[in-house]
Amino acid sequence: MDWEGLKNENEDIVAWLYLPAVDLSYPVVQADDNEYYLHRTIKKTYNFAGSVFIDSTNAFDFSDCNTIIYGHNMKNGSMFGKLKQMYESKKYKDSKYLWICTPNGKYRYEIFSMQYAKVGSDVYTLFSAHDEQFEAYVKKMAKQSKVDMKALGLGKDDYVVTLSTCTSDESVRFVVQARWV
């Protein structure tokens, strides 16, 4: 990755997300609020599709227990439009991993949960510590998965990314969760 070039294009780019099973590859940005990139490209121009972005309350370096990444579910398959294929077309069988690339390195994450979740559900819980409460959360998310991803050893020391996209029901999101391995 040409991080210097990416940062010159937009200083808000903090990572690159790659999900090989559905050929999803996008820069990830973060702003001071969750509205800014909802309908802005990485070039900061208006576009309904917006950008793939980290929740504004998360640390930019993925050091939180649960880092939430949002992207629109575009009908043409762009943004997170392919995300539901992980479950619906069983693409998880092709690869159960995703990659987060940052200026500090490339990090592989193992998918452990794919589910439909209500807006505001506990899927979106942020934690301040890797404790028993977080461990219970991770195990609960794995149990709620539409598919048993057979992730072994889930626990309080995990770092989770939660990919979230809209569905045709305004009150429901499709969510893919993975832990750093």
Would you mind describing this structure in some detail?
This protein is of the alpha+beta class. The chain contains 3 helices and 8 strands; from the N terminus they run αββββαββαββ. Strand 7 and strand 8 form a beta hairpin. The radius of gyration is 15 Å and the shape is globular.
Estimate what percentage of residues fall within beta strands: 25-35%
Give the overall shape. Answer: globular
The SSE string, one letter per element, is: HEEEEHEEHEE
- What is the helix fraction of residues, given as a range? 10-25%
How many individual helices? 3
Total number of β-strand segments?
8
Tell me about the biggest sheet?
8 strands, mixed, barrel
The overall average pLDDT, rounded, is 96
Query: Numbering strands along the chain, what is their spatial order in the largest sheet?
Result: 1-2-3-4-7-8-6-5
Radius of gyration: 15 Å
Question: Roughly how many Å apart are the termini?
Answer: 21 Å
**Which parts are unreliable, with pLDDT below 50 for 5 consecutive residues or more?**
none
* Helical/strand content category: alpha+beta
